[in-house]
Write a structure and sequence with these properties.
By secondary structure, the chain is an alpha/beta fold. The protein has 8 helices and 7 strands. About 35% of the residues lie in helices and about 20% in strands. A 7-stranded parallel beta sheet has the order 1-2-3-4-5-6-7, covered by helices on one side. The radius of gyration is 17 Å and the shape is globular.
Amino acid sequence: MVDFGDKISCTVFTYGCNMRCPFCHNGALVVGDGDGEVLEDEIFDYLKKRKGLVDAVCVTGGESTLQKDLPEFLKKVRELGYIIKVDSNGLDPDMLETLIDRDLVDYLAMDIKNSLEKYPLTTGLKKVDLSKIRRSIELLMTRAKDYEFRTTVIKEFHTKEDMQSIAELLRGAKKYVLQKYVDSEGCISHGFTAYEKPEAEELLKLFEGKVDALLLRGY
């Protein structure tokens, strides 16, 4: 009941990621050994039994777009009549474009990890193809049915200047969500510092007049 607005959702977690954000709260899906695999047949048995009770299917991760058969999976979900949401880090705009072209996603949520200059630091990668991030942002803003951009803010990674840069990057977007960092057991690394609600509210003000809808999540 928290992954897709007011819709009751079934969330499918995919294994593997092409980023290594140290604050990731699904660390076992990123650097784990793949335990807990659920067969596709089990997922569809679940969905068939709950038609009318569940509204939507959310696919998240890890990084969902690493699954090359994602379009085929979502086509089966669509045929059952479910609304579909996909979470992504934006590193595979080709996959996102495929999902949009084939009408396989109703809502896209893209993580904006930081200002573009600090993407390598924030994602744990030596190099990030920022052209792919920019293209994914443009795809969502110009072609997605509905979407949001979101950032999990942490004092060790995100400065006021970084947030101002993100606000400019997303100028004209429909929705931006600022998410609270929680140092949970599943995080890849620990010991980072969350912004308190009053501080987060001040950061969100930097987006006023640039993004239509603004939201705090987790506060």
